[in-house]
Amino acid sequence: MNPKVDWYFTKNKRWQEETETLRAIALSCGLTEELKWGCPCYTNEGTNIVLIHVFKEYCAYLFFKGAVMKDPKKILVRQTENVQAARQIRFTNAKEIVKMKTTLKAYIKEAIAVGKAGMKVEFKKTKEFAMPEEFKNKLDEMPGLKKAFYELTPGRQRGYLLYFSSAKQPATREARIKKYMKQILNGKGLDD
Description:
The chain is an alpha+beta fold. The protein has 2 domains: about 5-115, Aspartate Aminotransferase, domain 1 (Alpha-Beta Complex), CATH 3.90.1150; about 125-185, no CATH class. Helices cover about 45% and strands about 15% of the residues. It contains 8 helices and 5 strands, in the order ααβββββαααααα. It has helices at about 10, 15-30, 95-100, 100-115, 135-140, 145-150, 155-165, 170-185, and strands at about 30-35, 40-45, 45-55, 60-65, 85-90. A hairpin with a 2-residue loop joins strand 2 and strand 3. The longest helix has 16 residues, at about 100-115. The model has no long low-confidence stretch (mean pLDDT about 95).
């Protein structure tokens, strides 16, 4: 156990018993406990294996390379359609976790093996993501913006494309693009 992570298990009273049970299972698999992205993250030889996180309706194990795991029990869930690599196993009570303990350990062991084998998730290329017409027009109108956008890392480009595309109304897409133009010009990502 890493004392720097302890606070996480007491901050959310709703999921305290569940997250502590998930913690014990992860640690029993010989993983190193760290704090990443404000959540308990379990690593093996520096490779991220699984993360514990909570939501209003459930808590979950998040397997970083879940997309390449076998998932014989068909319990891995894709959090949203835009998530490419990670997969969750969701829980709504501690009894459910205890009942699945053997399965969870098997999934963690497979995730460790995936990491050791160096398996990679095939990510969609940035050019495969939809570019909203409003943003395409703005890039065509402003060569400096276009240059700055394509100089961003692929992940930052995808972040903007997903955010702009998720707006249903053209006016909302336009407003989002306008709001983030300066950030793009400054070489920053959506959340930088």
